Amino acid sequence: MEKESFEYILPCRFGIESVLKREVNDLGYTTLPGSDGRVSFIGDAEALCRASVNLRTAERILINVGTFRAETYDQLFEGTKALEIERFVPEHGAFTIAKAGTVRSRLFSPSDIQSIVKKAMAVRLSEKYRVSWLPEDGEEYSFRVFIKDDMVTIGLDTSGASLHKRGYRLRNAAAPLAENLAAAVIMLTPFKDSRIMVDPFCGSGTIPIECAMIAARKAPGVNRSFRAEKWGFIGKELWDRAREEARSLEKSSIEADIQGYDIDGSVISAARENAERAGVDSMIHFQRRPVAELSHGGSFGFIITNPPYGERIGEEEELKEIYASLGRAYRALDRWSMYVLSSFDSAQKYIGIRPGKVRKLYNGMIKAELYQYAGEKPGKKRPASKAAHER
User: Which residue ranges form the domains of the chain, and what is each CATH number?
Assistant: First the structure.
């Protein structure tokens, strides 16, 4: 099956589809027309290996097993039973329906959908393997079902653990930012490895670490495993080749100025450990420092950060000072840019600066705003006034 082509479905967080499309295109593949929260492309088995190892912003990679219309549970059963499940699941394979979701469809019960799809697959496999009972004592094959406007898509999960799990973050802050969302935020900025980057609310270090990995071109999946590696239809040599290719593109010498601050000394310790596991500890300076003491002598740098947003009643006064301090510190820097991801409704008000752009993103199920303050670019003549700092 290594020479066959498949449609790969890449679920992602709402708001970062354009970033993920760019990543897929940079790998040399053409994306298909898609929908919110997912990107698709056609590729062979080698494409799956390369995408798994290299993509920074995807949640996981699914093989599209089939798409069909179903308005009733009978149609769902028959449509699933008609799919060539045996192409992927061997006689002893353990197959599960991990998740089902529906949007604007007549079928809306996830548990019923999962049960019927599982039953239809079992009937299909029993007939194909000419057995009355499937042992399911082999490797795991996990499927996901999406139904939108009565169109059913069944995808085979090749990733296993979500792709945001790079393997370096064993110690977390209280509310860690997912690695793939942190990477997406960085990739939505014009940051380059030669520029300064400071995260004054770094927590367990996710933004500085992802920034350093991007600067050094370290592939996020090069040191982790994927569920599809255990399947027989994708050879080990393809996975080895994808990892070798990724390692060959790494930059061995980077003169980066990447800094992470946090007022909590315990999370700074965790950040240093995480950066060491990621292999980028030499590129990042972590320090216990409150945002009110944020300063830097360099010009044209970047603040990229995810400040606290608060969940308890009575926190607004504390958050007001945090965001006000961030705004004051930013105004004192020389021609910097700032990108603030926050779910705090009054973030812009207390920062005290009108952003050039605001982009909606989702941190899990929590809606967030990415406030974008674009500073000047090096080499350009400085204007008489800073439009980005207008109130």
Answer: 6-157 (3.30.2130.30), 179-218+251-389 (3.40.50.150)
